[in-house]
Each structure stands twice: as C-alpha cells, then as structure tokens.
Amino acid sequence: MYTIQPKKIIILNILDILNKYTDAEHTLSQTEIREKLESEYSMKVERKAIKRNLMDLIDFGCQIEYNETPRTKLNPQTGEYEENNLLSDFYIEHDFDNSELRLLIDSIIFSNHIPQGDKKRLIEKLEGLSNVYFKSRMKHVTTAKSRNTATNMLFYTIDILDEAISSGKQVKFHYDEYSTDKKLHHRKNDEGEVRDYIINPYQIAAQGGKYYLICNYDKYDDLANYRLDRISDIKILDSNAKPITSLPGLENGFDLSKYMNEHIYMFADKTIKAKFIATKGVLNDVMDYFGEEAQISDVKNDSFTVTVRISELDMQLFAMQFATEVTVLEPAKLAAKCKDSIIKAAERYKNYVSE
C-alpha cells in the first residue's frame, strides 16, 4: 500500500496504471482507474479529475487510445437532455509490443556470452517495458546457463571499445584462452611473456551468439576478429587508430554485411570463391549459414551444387561439420585439405575405437 500522496502527482500515477495494466486487449474504464488509484496509491479522486488528467496525458503526446460512445443525458440544472460522449476502454500503446519484447528476451536467453546474473537483470528490465500480463506469461521462461564463466567485464569492454571507435583511438588489451584447469589465462608470446595486443578497432559485431571485435592488429595490414568475452585489461591509448580505408582492398570502405556473410565462423583469413556439392538433407543448413548469397545450381533428386564467397577456414570448418553431406569441389587445394582432414580423423578413430 502506498503512502498518501499529493494530488499533483495524480497524472503520474494514472500513467503508471495504464503502463502496468493496459494494452489493446486489456483496457480500463475511468471507474477502474479511480479504483486502482485508491487501492494502490491511497488516492481518492473524482471522476472528472480522472478524465481531465487522461486528456492532459493525451495532449502531452502519450499514446493513449480509448473508445468514444455518444450518449444523451439529462442536465439536472436545465432540465434538458444533452448529447455528450462517454469515454471508456482506455489503454496505452507501449513502445514495444509483446512479440518484439519476446524476441529481445529470447536473444538474451540464448546468448552464450552474457553472465547469468546479467541475463536475469536485463530480462527484468525488458519485462518492465510491458505490463503485468506480459510478465505473467514469462514466468515459465528459464534462462539458459551461460557456458562462459568469465564474462563479467563484457559490458565494460563494449563501452570502452565504443568510445575508442567513436574517437578513432587505438586500444590495448590482453587476450585470454582456456587451459585444462578450465580457467582463462592471458595468451603469451614465444618467450613466455604475457602478450600485449595493440589494435585499431573498427566494428563490434554479433555472430553465433557471441560478440566479436573486427579490427586491425597494428603490426599487419589485414583485418582480425577477437571475441569480446576473451578480452581483458582493456584501455584506450592516446595514439590515433589506423583508418580502415588504409588497409589493402578496403580503400573504398568496409561492407559489414558482406564481411559477416563471408565469415560465418568469424575466421579472419582471406575470402575465396568456393564450390561444393551438398545433399538435400542439409539445404536448410546451407540457407541458415549462407542465405540469399548462396548460388544454387545443378539441382538433382538428392543433391545440389552451391557456389559462395567465404573465408577459406570458414569453408573448411563448414565442410567438416557436415562431412557426410558436403563435398568441396573448388578450389582444388581446399578440397585436398578437407580430404586430408577426413583421413586424419578416420585414423584417430582407428586408434581409439575398436572395429
């Protein structure tokens, strides 16, 4: 129960009631709004004041909808019948509809890089953008446990990188990798010393439920990708970042959409034109990974041929992932690498699995 509040905040409480309890399928009458003001805010308000404040909110620009019904009513002062309009079924149009909020919440639930506590906090914030009816439908949702246990600095890293990209500055960080103790450790150089990464940051992108930094390692003239949840001890340097247009092949700018389509696993090696045969059983997977960029030809009863532009390592990993369904044809060197990998894999199984 709220403590007694001054009359001047009636308008704020009415807005809060509309946000909490209404949408296109759940409306409130002026009487119901008055009852909630009394039960939840200890405010006794006349009906005329309810209508006046509702109209003020609408004039202020709040997206409040209502029904208007003509009616005839006797005026006790004049003794004559007068026509006026009855306003009812008030509801507010929320910035996000429930399907949009659910899409955002699902993206958090299935994220591999957001810590469990942060998932819960973000979902609660998104729930607050709708009403109590949406919250009740979300009670059955359980957030999947993040596989990555060392992502508490992720949001800080994003903030620092965003500032560095906006100001055109270099950043310095350590890059971490797992050891068999299941903990992350700073990557070291050949001399066994912790390696410092000084890079030129260009873009933050999401792929496969993970955040990546697309950048240039200062010693080289190509692009590199780093997992944001593996970055630690990051700081902005005073030195200016190398412009992305100074890199070979990017003189005319960087096409992020094209880059993401060609790097489905975010390996940052050279892009090639690849051709492979696939069985019909993986057609959905081909479309999931390559989308409209996949050129499909030579369609047969049980197979089809695909031509794509893709990172060479990405193509090799895709081929290995679907080794029983996909056969690389071109380039010939890549096809040979895939064949050798399959032979090596078979040999390993001979060592560990008896016939």
Please state the overall shape, judged from the principal axes of the Cα atoms: elongated
Average the pLDDT over all residues and give the rounded result.
87
Helix content: 25-40%
Question: What separation lies between the terminal Cα atoms?
Answer: 73 Å
Number of strands: 12
Give the class from helix and strand content and strand pairing.
Answer: alpha+beta
Series of secondary-structure elements, N-terminal to C-terminal: HHHEEHHHHEEEEEEHEHEEHEH
Which parts are unreliable, with pLDDT below 50 for 5 consecutive residues or more?
none
Radius of gyration computed on alpha carbons: 30 Å
Given the structure, what is the number of helices? Answer: 11
Summarize the biggest pleated sheet: 6 strands, antiparallel
Strand content: 25-35%
Number of domains: 4
In short:
By secondary structure, the protein is an alpha+beta fold.
Describe the protein in words:
It is a single chain. The protein has 355 residues and is an alpha+beta fold. It has four domains: 7-92, Orthogonal Bundle (Arc Repressor Mutant, subunit A), CATH 1.10.10; 98-137, no CATH class; 154-254, no CATH class; 271-352, Alpha-Beta Plaits, CATH 3.30.70. It is built from eleven helices and twelve strands. It has helices at residues 10-21, 30-41, 47-60, 98-109, 116-127, 132-137, 154-167, 256-262, 283-290, 312-321, 332-352, and strands at residues 64-74, 81-92, 169-178, 184-186, 197-207, 210-217, 224-227, 231-240, 271-279, 295-297, 303-311, 326-330. The strands form three sheets. Strands 3, 4, 5, 6, 7 and 8 form a six-stranded antiparallel beta sheet that branches. The protein has a four-stranded antiparallel beta sheet with strand order 10-11-9-12. The radius of gyration is 30 Å and the shape is elongated. The model has no long low-confidence stretch (mean pLDDT 87).
